[in-house]
Amino acid sequence: MKLSEIQLALERCETQPTRSLGQNFLHDQNLARWIVGALHIQPGDHVIEIGPGLGSLTEHLAAHDIRLTLIEKDARFLPHLEEKFQNARTEILCLDALDYDLRQAWGKGPVKIIGNLPYYVSTPLIAKFTSALSPASRLVLTLQLELAQRLNATPKTREYGALTVCVNRRWKASHLRKLPASVFFPAPRVDSAVIALDRRPVSDVRPLDELLFDALVRRGFSERRKQLRNLLPELKPVWSALIAELKVPETVRAEELSLAQWEMLTRFARPGGAQSGGEMFDVVDENDRVLRAEARETVHVNNFLHRAVHILIFNRQGDLLLQRRSIWKDRNPGLWDSSAAGHVDSGEDYLEAARRELHEELGVEIPCLEPLGKLVPCEQTGWEFIEVYRGTHEGPFHPAPMEVEVAAFFRRDVVRAWTTGSPGDFSPVFLLCLDLL
């Protein structure tokens, strides 16, 4: 939109930009077109725009064959947005983007996010839309220059901090270009920048306890001038070995550690990988009778018949709890799955295994589990006999960090539409379990 068009639209809305809401409208059409181009839109994408305002970016987004969700907090702009952009493929929501339910974005195509973020709330918005529940693969955001520099900072610099480390573990930040204040109306008091955040490949993300990692990083940067050994007292018993491994002095501070070193520090605090191959499973015959016990790896490599359980948990409203499997699982990593699932260990029966998996994966107990049915071995089940149970629980749940990336309740009609439209988002076994309902 040209500056004259923005001013005319504001007149029609009988309003003016509100500084407290961080409203600064981009009026350089070439820049707006370039920012939208940086999103790398493909046909069929689902693009979420945070804070469209009067539609400076939206008019260029709407030219693509995409599903579009506009999240605008200021109700004064709703009539203007509805008049210009409302159609069957565009949803316009009047709410604070911090209150947007990320579950709504799943199952509607590959998600990309764009926005000229209000400076006062940029950090929590970035945290939300890069969280474990976010379906996005790429974000292109206009931010205050200082914040953009923090996201792309390097160790031992003033800009490098907890936000840098925590976001860059799962996302690659790229500084695309600086924007002068003069391209906005009204002109902000600071310069801005456009940054891109791209989800890192699974192979680039080291396995560790994510919650512990975030907690240690944030505590380490809480008092930048203090030495880490004083901020992380639980590591004092292993401090000498830790600094030798990190190749840093005893007096090291948070800003001196790279992302890889922070990950190494976390593994010292809680060692252990995503999975071990040491479990023993019962190998069974075609009638599910136990023949012998074999190691997990042997069973999987040879496709021996064995046993597993899947549990579907519902709340009182009838919503189904789905878990997104850890990216470090050996089977179906990163896919959505039943509420809890796992193998039956040697010597266990199905019900014992189901109760154990509920405790290990979600930290809950459900005394009454109802059998739903049994799946027979095939390639789709991984050559497992699978007993499927259902139960009721309201939470809270405590997902095991190395097993479950995120768990959330979804309405059953949403799950049905999602599995129909995007079956590749789910584990093959879950799709079979859903047919038992």
What does this structure look like?
It is a single chain. The chain has 437 residues and is α/β, with parallel strands linked by helices. The chain folds into three domains: 3-204, Vaccinia Virus protein VP39 (Rossmann fold, 3-Layer(aba) Sandwich), CATH 3.40.50; 210-269, Helicase, Ruva Protein, domain 3; 280-434, Nucleoside Triphosphate Pyrophosphohydrolase, CATH 3.90.79. The chain is built from 15 helices and 18 strands. It has helices at residues 3-12, 29-37, 58-61, 78-85, 122-129, 145-151, 162-170, 210-220, 228-231, 239-246, 259-269, 296-302, 350-362, 412-421, 428-434, and strands spanning 25-26, 46-50, 67-72, 90-94, 111-116, 136-144, 171-179, 184-185, 192-199, 280-284, 290-295, 306-314, 320-325, 336-337, 340-343, 370-375, 384-392, 404-410. Strands 4-3-2-5-6-9-7 form a seven-stranded mixed beta sheet. The chain has a four-stranded mixed beta sheet with strand order 15-12-17-16, sandwiched between helices. Strands 14-13-18 form a three-stranded antiparallel beta sheet. Helix 7 (162-170) runs antiparallel to helix 8 and helix 8 packs across helix 11. The chain is globular and about 80 Å long. The mean pLDDT is 93.
